[in-house]
């Protein structure tokens, strides 16, 4: 996977874009870089776009393990965009596992407009 992120302090929004093949190691690398970024605030919201991901190389157990890692605060809203049915399902699984840990502010959408509307971000 290649990925990038931007932090918009004014909008309190982290925008993550991933493309290519997505692995657990790459997700962990992203989380670590984000946590170490001095501009990052765990209370910011996140827009994570997976529409350019071609292949997700992880299983349900891996998704569950990744969902246990907390980078954003419980009050942070996180919107994932996935238009591929399998990727959408994996993102929903991540959100469901994450909810078990008490963080239920993750929603999965198929379009950017829906995600931005839920995050209450205007662009």
Descriptive report:
It is a single chain. This protein has 123 residues and is of the alpha/beta class. It has a single domain, classed as 2-Layer Sandwich (Transcription Regulator spoIIAA), CATH 3.30.750. It contains four helices and five strands, in the order E-E-H-E-H-E-H-E-H. A five-stranded mixed beta sheet has the order 1-2-3-4-5, with helices on both faces. The longest helix has 16 residues, at 85-100. The mean pLDDT is 92.
Considering the chains and any ligands shown, give keywords for the structure.
123 residues, alpha/beta, Transcription Regulator spoIIAA, 4 helices, 32% strand, globular
Short description:
The protein has helices at 24-36, 60-67, 85-100, 112-119; strands at residues 2-8, 13-23, 45-57, 78-81, 106-109.
